Model the fold of this input.
Amino acid sequence: MSTVTISDLAPIVLPEAPGLWPLAPGWWLLIVLVLALIVTMSLMVIKQRQFWRIKHLALTKVQATEQVGEINQLLKQVAIHYYGANRVAALQGQSWTDFINQGLNNDLKTLNNQINQHLYHRDNNHYLEQFKHIASTWLKQLDKKAFREAKHA
Done:
């Protein structure tokens, strides 16, 4: 029998430390879920911005408009966009005024009633600044809660 000495033994070789790659299945699942969440949130933000784009454009256009009738027409277009043509398109006169008044306080409701009585007269432009204020207030109060309530009404 031969005797084995320590110098005859092969050196100890440590195994390679485990690396980060390839990732474990749990990490892949987490990555997929995070990416899906990012994509979903991005799409929701884009959709939200597109939905409110008309409102912001209308607010800008109201301030640039110089005719009361044009502002009224602009409000009608915005209302049709958000509330639907079947609910808004046929409104005119007092029913249209009542529709706009739903989002206004009592002082503005009274003023809006006065303006809409003179809407189709030639000399209605002395109401221009007041009607711009009413239109801006109505546009600013538009929110999704109002649309949900309107759908159930």
Q: What stands out?
A: The mean pLDDT is 85. The two ends are 102 Å apart (CA to CA). The chain is about 65% helix and 0% strand.
